[in-house]
Design goal:
With 216 residues, this protein is mainly α. It has a domain at 93-216: Tetracycline Repressor, domain 2. Helices cover 69% and strands 3% of the residues. It has a two-stranded antiparallel ribbon with strand order 1-2. Mean pLDDT is 87; it is low at 1-15.
């Protein structure tokens, strides 16, 4: 389990609410990595962008690699909170409607002003999975969590909605995560964020094709 020092210098378990200084470092690291990648984002640059000292960085992180794992967790937690807030706010009971709303939120994020149209987890997996096993494991965990959320919704949809044909919810969920990550990579390469939106809609149509309603 990854730990960090709290304000007294004691190592604190990751998952507790970060201090304001640590949040500044995580946000600066996230922005830097999304902008130029992990290797090109230095500790000095992160500290400068966060407006804190290098000593503060090493107060919270033993190394740049530890920071990488924590910024991945921070990034994923923020996205998960955004999804949960929308689904909870809208009080959606129907699992297919929940899937639709989830995809709508993804599109809203891509289309938001100044959105980088990339996923930090995907970027770091591409850059580091072959050379940094701890980071690879964290990325795999977050990909798995995203697929599991979709898997659960698809299984519930199978239970309550008539289907046109049988399908494996886990396989479809993994396909969708792969589609999303590949789309963001292509959008970054071609500088065409609309590609992500288009492919999410193709994924939506594919999911609907298994069911006897929702436009399928």
């Amino acid at each position: 389990m990854v730990t960090n020092q709290d304000s007294t210098g004691r190592r604190a378990v990751s998952g507790a609410e970060p201090s304001e200084t640590k949040l500044k470092l995580l946000r600066a690291a996230e922005a830097g990595i999304i902008r130029q990648g992990f290797a090109a984002t230095t500790v000095d640059e992160i500290c400068s962008d966060a407006g804190v000292t290098k000593g503060s960085f090493f107060h919270y992180f033993e190394s740049k690699d530890e920071m990488a794992r924590e910024v991945l967790n921070y990034h994923s937690q923020q996205k998960n909170r955004a999804f949960a807030a929308v689904l909870g706010r809208d009080h959606i009971d129907d699992p297919l409607d929940q899937i639709d709303r989830l995809l709508d939120v993804m599109i809203e994020m891509v289309q938001a002003p100044d959105s980088p149209s990339v996923c930090l987890v995907g970027m770091m997996a591409q850059e580091l999975a072959a050379t940094n096993e701890p980071v690879r494991e964290v990325c795999a965990t977050h990909f798995g969590e995203g697929a599991q959320q979709m898997t659960q919704l698809l299984r519930e949809a199978q239970r309550v909605v008539p289907t046109k044909k049988d399908f494996d919810p886990e396989a479809v969920a993994l396909m969708f995560v792969s589609l999303l990550q590949g789309s963001m990579l292509m959008a970054k390469t071609t500088q065409n964020p609309d590609l992500v939106v288009s492919n999410i809609e193709h994924g939506r149509a594919y999911i609907r094709s298994f069911f006897k309603r929702k436009g399928g």
